[in-house]
Write a structure and sequence with these properties.
The complex is a heterodimer of chains A (about 350) and B (about 230). Chain A is mostly helical. Chain A has helices at about 15-35, 40-60, 65-70, 75-85, 90-105, 120-130, 135, 150-155, 175-185, 190, 205-220, 230-250, 255-260, 265-270, 285-305, 310-325. The two termini of chain A are about 35 Å apart. With about 230 residues, chain B is mainly α. Helix content of chain B is about 65%, strand content about 0%. Chain B has 10 helices and 2 strands, in the order αααααααβαβαα. In chain B, strands 1-2 form a two-stranded antiparallel sheet. Chain B is globular. The chains are: A mainly alpha (about 350), B mainly alpha (about 230). The interface between A and B is small, with 6 and 7 residues.
């Protein structure tokens, strides 16, 4: 291609798109590392190698060409999204197991990239949160004084050097603290939010990570790699449930801002509901899909048994995608009436 | 190899492998998925089902000339239900602890599709001995799947094998239980319903893979010239 003839279309390859998605994750990763330490990078590395290894192994079993599938980087995107959803100081086998489930069960057994009805990263996460709820709830304390070697030692051997306290590596997430606090009763949301874990806006440290995800998502939208409908509809869905509840009983229900900045809400809006394979693809369908994911996230968080709900909400809506896509086919141009194209 | 299989061998091969109720016909999945969370439960329910299938097939076959075609299903179900009641009472009397664990799934053998299917498809048109043999083989085929799935789920989910075997085999059974992982080990997914679906899918895939390999080998043996050229 000529350097000057900008009107000539560059071929959009899968690996180029995936590379940009990875780049869009970098600000969030940087903030995560600042808040939770180099453990985040270890999780990313473990997930990446496991994903590439698992993908190659299954492709070999399926007698498919290995190199092109590895080079399209889609497995790395899945691995990174999964690693960033898992506890930064989780034991090494957790992220390895989660990635194996995501790539083998969530992606390759359905036929590889483009054929998976469910978001592979969310499959891996759901397997882990259902199987190991206690280990998945133990997040690192943000900005805790735990140096890199101590973090590595904890991830790989589950022991700590003398002098470090377990509190530094097993702090509950704000969503968890709020849920248990409200279940015990007696305290209003505003009183609970006085605890240092919540910081100024409801998620000490985590709020900046969340905003960095939003930044990456905006860049992807500016690059025309993700549609605006799905993420905006999802955020609207979050607001549609959390705002009325909060206005009705602010002592019982957290504010919409809390729901936006906590858990995986903004990560999901930018990177997970926008997955072109497992999400809806029609214009109206994207609005419905995103909105209902947002609604389910808050409903499951507030009324369900698990603290965060993004994985479950996305998986449930993934199941509905064929139906949504079928009923929202746009009318073919020039044809009047009729629901279907 | 060269002699054609007898009718008994043929029935056995179909029940245990070719038409295996759990892996091929996919009948009676409700107990397969629900009770396969450990080997002992799976084995007990499988043997109870085998007993019922064999007895009911024999009974159905022996009355097949006197049952009007129009009301054969209610008649078959009455026969099966009475046999299940016998098994239910017997287990309650002699394997009480196991009976408490298996609970509703013992009476539910009545509605197990495989029992009804063998009565309808085989026993109602075959002599008594063949029917009884077919019922037993189909039941054992299902038991095999149940035990394999139970072993897979128990091993991955809890790291044990044959835990609680004394419920089935008496005090001797205590020595049969194996603890292969630390007491804290637990992989909840395999013990929950998703583990049953995943495990069954893996078993079915494994059987299909074995069959495909056997077919390939047969083709290669029949036509050595083209062997190795197929991808």
């Amino acid at each position: 291609m000529s350097r000057h003839a900008t009107h000539i279309a560059q071929p959009v390859t899968v690996s180029r798109v995936m590379l940009k998605v990875l780049a869009a994750l970098l600000p969030g990763i940087a903030v995560s590392v600042y808040c939770f330490g180099p453990g985040v990078l270890v999780q990313l590395l473990l997930a990446t190698f496991t994903a590439l290894g698992a993908e190659a192994a299954v492709l070999r079993l399926r007698q498919r060409p290995i190199a092109p599938a590895l080079a399209d980087l889609s497995a790395v995107v899945t691995a990174w999204l999964l690693a960033l959803s898992m506890p930064p100081l989780g034991a090494w086998w957790m992220i390895v197991l989660a990635t194996l489930f995501a790539i083998v069960l969530g992606k390759q057994l359905y036929g590889g990239l483009g054929n998976n009805p469910f978001n592979p990263a969310m499959v891996g996460f759901a397997v882990m949160i259902v199987s190991f709820p206690a280990q998945m709830a133990a997040w690192g304390t943000p900005l805790a004084a735990l140096d890199a070697t101590a973090q590595l030692q904890w991830i790989f051997t589950h022991t700590l050097p003398a002098g470090s306290s377990v509190d530094a590596i097993s702090s509950a997430t704000p969503l968890d603290v709020l849920k248990t606090g409200l279940l015990q009763g007696g305290q209003a949301v505003s009183q609970l939010l006085q605890q240092p874990r919540f910081g100024q806006w409801g998620n000490a440290g985590g709020e900046w990570v969340a905003l960095a995800w939003a930044l990456g998502g905006l860049w992807l939208w500016q690059q025309k790699l993700i549609p605006w409908r799905t993420p905006l509809a999802m955020l609207a869905g979050v607001l549609a449930v959390s705002l009325p509840l909060w206005l009705w009983q602010p002592a019982q229900y957290a504010s919409p801002l809390f729901h936006l900045l906590n858990g995986a809400t903004l990560l999901a809006a930018g990177f997970i509901v926008t997955d072109p394979v497992s999400g809806s693809t029609t214009p109206l369908g994207r609005l419905i899909f995103g909105f209902l994911v947002g609604v389910l996230v808050v409903v499951i968080r507030v009324f369900g048994g698990f603290p965060d709900a993004v994985a479950f909400a996305v998986l449930i809506m993934n199941m509905a995608v064929p139906f949504i896509d079928h009923t929202t086919q746009p009318r073919v141009f020039g044809r009047k009436g009729g629901r279907h194209a | 190899m060269s002699t054609p299989p007898t009718v008994w061998q043929d029935i056995a091969r179909k029940g245990l492998w070719q038409q295996n109720p759990g892996l091929v016909q996919l009948l009676g999945l409700c107990p397969v998925l629900a009770i396969s969370n450990n080997v002992v439960n799976a084995l007990a329910l499988g043997l109870a089902t085998t007993l019922v299938t064999a007895l009911s097939s024999a009974t159905v076959s022996s009355v097949r000339h006197w049952v009007p075609a129009d009301i054969r299903n209610p008649v078959f179900i009455m026969i099966i239900a009475s046999l299940v009641t016998c098994v239910d009472l017997a287990m309650n009397a002699w394997l009480h602890e196991l009976y408490l664990v298996l609970g509703i799934f013992i009476p539910l053998i009545t509605t197990n599709c495989i029992v009804m299917a063998r009565a309808e498809a085989f026993a109602s048109r075959q002599p008594v001995r063949e029917a009884a043999w077919d019922g037993a083989m189909m039941g054992l085929g299902l038991t095999g799947v149940l035990v394999a799935l139970g072993a897979l789920r128990e091993l991955l989910g809890k790291g044990t094998l044959l835990a609680g075997a004394d419920k089935l085999f008496g005090p001797v059974g205590q020595h049969l239980s194996l603890q292969l992982a630390g007491p804290d080990y637990q992989f909840l997914l395999m013990l929950l319903p998703p583990g049953a679906f995943l495990g069954l899918a893996l078993l079915i895939a494994g059987k299909n893979a074995l069959d495909a390999r056997a077919r390939q080998r047969q083709a290669a043996a029949a036509n050595p010239a083209t062997a190795g050229t197929t991808p």
